[in-house]
Amino acid sequence: MADGAMTATFLAVIGGASLLAVTARRLRPVDRLPALEGWALADRSLGPVWTWLLLGGTIFTAYTFTAVPGLAYGNGAPAFFAVPYTVIVCPLAFVLLTRLWTVARRHGYVTAADFVRGRYGSPPLALVVALTGILATMPYLALQLLGIRAVLTAGGVYPRGAAGDLVMVGLFAGLAVATYRHGLRAPAVISALKAVAVFVSLTAVCWLVLARLGGPGAVFEGAARRLGGTDTGTGSAIGESALLLSPEQQPAYATLALGSALALLMYPHVLTAGFAADSPRTVRKVAVALPAWTALLALFGFLGIAALATGVRAPEGGAEAAVPMLVDRLMPTPLAGLVFGAITVGALVPAAVMSIAAATSFVRNVYVEYVHPTATPKRQVRIAKAVSLTAKVGAVAFVFGLRDQDAINLQLLGGVWILQIFPAVAVGLFTGRLHPRALLAGWAVGMVAGTYMVVREGFSSIVPFGPADQPLEVYAGLAALALNLIVAVVGTAALERLGVPRGADKTDLPSRLAVRRRPETGANNP
């Protein structure tokens, strides 16, 4: 059970986040009529520092900061796929997000589905892109609550029974009010506190771990002994091998890293944070600086190894509690409260952006498109606020009403699902040759195939192919994406041969991928 000092520092961090949320309206205030772009994207006015804070705080969630070290605690080396995956995201964001921001700003697009609607002139394709984004985001939002609960339970800050439920509701109530009133500006200002609190607290925890255990070498040796099933000697071959990737694990590791990177930039909350930047130059600067957050994630993974080395015994099926338990064991209680508060704030930022992104997609691509085409900007904002609030309430109800594993399983499926809009969105940025009906068919095949593969393997995102004695294990989302692309390309050829018409392209992008030469340098530029 937490003592008074831990509870006080924890509440101080949460109180600071609440105070910052109240001041969100002062972040680049503008005297404009209500508009969805202003509420959902902060009027596209965030400079490099604010965009870096918001985008990093949105991508690197609290559940990531507990799940990755939990996976390292239980499985060793495979957990670190998250490091190359987040590194791959940076050049992808530099190219894809910059180009998408430019098109979105020019045409007033607020969501990826807006872009798809303009690029292909296909309302059905835009609808499935929007619904896929919402479907993939909702379990991700619920996981932020699970991350908070895991951290607070491990630290003894989360009371049992109805009292604990009230704590969770109270945390999200303040976030809901701030987001309802100020839109994206609320998580933007909270992201500053998140960055400071997480960077400072993680540095303190890592320094303390290294000081107590005698350096990185001692940490990995201790972890190797425990993974090998022995606490004596200089390390076992079994334990050391668990801290390294075997040749059989490498295809799964590589495809999981690549597929996760491709999927991440398709999530509505990531695009929403990117669209809030004030220029494409800002997006490029932020993409270059994002590896600082990746280093943070790598250190969290290291703490999972440290928890193993120090003999932390996480509950069965609850490996994500390993790092909170390590913090509770090693740190003075006031500092432990600071760390728990930092991780909790780390969940509030992405949760707010996710609810905003889901609400915006619903309003722009479902409500306005199919229910109320003449809705005024003020009405669109009002509906978006209500949907955002509903999404948070739904996430809380989901966490209280279903098992934790249900949310985790749905989030695994969400990663596979969101990857299936990659051809329509990312490929569409560079070529409009793919037929919208073929893209729709490819999306359907990818969704069905990906879901089948994951469910068949007992909700594992890694699926085997080939002979049973030596299968090739790969990421299900990437395999489904390959089928998706094949269907889209073959379907396009067939539909063009049949002369099936396509919608008008309103984006001013080239219809096919071309390379033009810069006259001043002679360099090639796509």
TrEMBL record:
UniProt cross-references to CDD domains, sorted A to Z: SLC5sbd (cd10322)
Membrane topology: Multi-pass membrane protein
Source species, domain of life: Bacteria
GO molecular function: transmembrane transporter activity
Gene Ontology terms: cellular component: plasma membrane
Chief localisation class: membrane
Keywords tagged on the record: Membrane, Transmembrane, Transmembrane helix, Transport
Membrane in keyword set: yes
Family note: Belongs to the sodium:solute symporter (SSF) (TC 2.A.21) family.
Descriptive protein name: Sodium:solute symporter
Source species of the chain: Streptomyces phyllanthi
